[in-house]
Amino acid sequence: MSDNESSKGHVDEVEHVPETGHRSKMTEDNNWDQRVGFLMHDVSRLRRMVFDSFVKPLGVTRSRWWVLACLSRQDGMNQSDLASVLELGKAALGGLLDRLESSGLIERRADGNDRRAKRIYLTHRGHQTVKEMHHLSHQMSERVLEGLSHDQRLLLARMFALLKSNLLSIKQERGMDSI
What is the distance between the alpha carbons of residues 165 and 32, in angstroms, rounded to a whole number? Predict the structure, then answer.
């Protein structure tokens, strides 16, 4: 089996710019930018669907996962800061937190500096769920990236980081910081 093949299929089935520098159909197509946008959107949509199927046995939705993942990186956030990081309204986040709390995954504790505020913490069960979800996420990522070498994976990550940086810059230039 060649370097461009995997047990699941052939990498060359996707139109791309080969490393040899030869022009592919994508570079000759006047709508390449729309194609790239569609592919990014479609890959993102499919990844979300597959992720949901991987974590379904844990009973955690994608929106709940984002809250748990955020708290696993910075446990003890207040609701306002968490809403800001997740780009959610406080009311929408409040409902999510209620469901996570009733599931035993988080707990709200009084803020030592502000009696009106509550800090949000993962429970032991929440930490265990995050650990299981990281494991499932890793399994899924390995399947998604199947057929890509280590160097190709690094290049892909760098390219996505550049795209993200460009989009954040455009967002800032257009005054979209509050969106």
Answer: 21
pLDDT tens per residue, range 108-129: 999 888 888 889 999 999 999 9
100 Cα distance to chain centroid: 19
> In whole angstroms, what is the distance from residue 157 CA to residue 106 CA?
32
**DSSP labels for 63-74?**
HHHHHHHHHHHS
Contact predicate 26/32, CB 8 Å: yes
Buried (b) or exposed (e) across 6-41, using 16+ Cβ within 10 A? eeeeeeeeeeeeeeeeeeeeeeeeeeeeeeeeeeee
Contact 80, 92 (CB under 8 A): no
How far apart CA 122 and CA 76 sit, in angstroms, is 8
* Structure confidence at residue 18 (pLDDT): 43
Q: What is the CATH number of domain 59-130?
A: 1.10.10.10
Q: Rounded distance, CA 90 to CA 130, Å?
A: 23
3-state SS, residue 107: strand
Angle at 151 between CA 147 and CA 153, to 5 degrees: 55
Contacts of 125 (CB under 8 A, 6+ apart): 104, 105
Domain extent listing, the chain? 11-54, 59-130, 149-179
